Amino acid sequence: MVLFLAAVARSYHPGTGFTSLIGFPPAGPTEPPALQAIPHQQSAGANYDGQFYAQRALDPLLRDPTMDRGMDLAPFRARRILFSWTAYVLGLGRPAWILEAYALQNVGCWLILAVLLTRWISPVSGRGLALWCAILFSHGLLWSVCLALLDGPSLLLTMCAVIAIERNHPLRSAAIVGVAALGRETSVLVGFGQPLPKDARGWTRLALAAMLVILPLLIWMDYLRSIYRSTTLKGTDSFVLLGTGLASSWADALSLLTTRFFEALGPACIIVAIAVQALFVFIRRDYASPWWRIAFAYAVMLLFLDPVLANPHTGAITRVMLPLTAGFNVLLAKEPRPTRFWPWFLVGNLHLVPALHVLPLVPWS
Questions:
Q1: 310: closest CA among 222, 233, 251?
Q2: Of 4, 56, 61, 96, which sees the most CB atoms within 10 A?
Q3: Closest CA to 329 of 313, 302, 347
């Protein structure tokens, strides 16, 4: 944890604070005036999605039309509004503080995750420490921190939802998932962590839980429709026919091993790790565990990802599959035999190899 915080500290710059974590590119003609008025770190090597959600945090109810001109897929970014709202609240509505809050909320979530993980993985043995670190220093989670993305906070809400289920509060868990869906729509899959009904009362409770999962997103989508009209659903074409996205993008990535080995090694490690995690979940079949049910839902979603999301060169797949990675390691903690544990652990966590260059954070600084 000290190593992580030391890496975060490197991203601080006098006058602009931690805004280098957001990844703003050099200012262009479309940069919103509200953003121009705030000192923030910019770099020619930076240009990623976190900047758009940071801009949304400056205008959480979408009243400033100049914000839309400064981002791609404005309706899509508006759908994922939750962590822009949290940054606005944490920044007390003051623009400079809002940017700092948005930049650092991933860091805060990482620290909370480190504590919550000890509920399932006790890092007091070599095996426990390895599993704990495999999640906290995973490629997807570190990438979320160093680019101020939505995946780390979403994983935190996923863990909160699982805790509510384990404490026999399924409706509370469903409400958490419903809120999480305002951060990432795919968080609705966490709803599959709900316990399987055993009687009529259980089915009624499950129906109520389903309503709680989708209701916040439906209400927000209705608000967005009043602003964006027919373009509200823009950017939803992220899924393709079974396996076609994986086959095309993964085949291209693996083919580079023969010509540019060291460049292709990191993406190849990601491909193997994600595939092994999904395979483990399909084989394990621990129906009673909410972590297994959630990981299974994400493993199925993996099969339908489009080539852009499935491409290991973009880093998106490790972020999208963070609940699968967490579920894999939590389930692996139950494996009593070292001869089975270590092979699964080492191959299923090969994503840690490309994560090594992410740890210093802010790769463009």
A1: 251
A2: 56
A3: 347
Please report how the helices 170-180 and 200-228 are oriented relative to each other, as an axis angle in degrees rounded to 10: 20
Overall size of the chain counted in residues: 365
The token pair at 215 is 């209701």
Buried b (16+ CB within 10 A) or exposed e, 263-296: ebebbbbbbbbbbbbbebbeebeeeebbbbbbbb
Q: How far apart are CA 113 and CA 305, in angstroms?
A: 26
Q: What is the pLDDT along the chain (365 residues), one digit of tens a residue?
A: 888 998 899 889 999 999 999 989 888 778 899 999 999 998 887 788 999 999 999 999 999 988 888 788 899 999 999 999 999 999 999 999 999 999 999 999 999 999 999 999 999 999 999 999 999 999 999 999 999 999 999 999 999 999 999 999 999 999 999 999 999 999 999 999 998 888 999 999 999 999 999 999 999 999 999 999 877 777 666 677 787 888 888 888 888 887 888 778 888 999 999 999 999 999 999 999 999 999 999 999 999 998 888 888 888 999 999 999 999 999 999 998 889 999 999 999 999 998 887 766 655 44
Per domain, the residue ranges of the chain are 1-119, 150-236, 244-355
CA 143 remoteness from chain centre: 9
Q: How far apart are CA 173 and CA 207, in angstroms?
A: 13
Rounded to whole angstroms, how far apart are CA atoms 126 and 313? 31
Residues 6+ apart with CB under 8 A from 302: 246, 274, 278, 310, 321, 324
CA-closest candidate to residue 357, choices 253, 278, 262, 274: 262
Beta bridge partners of 267: none
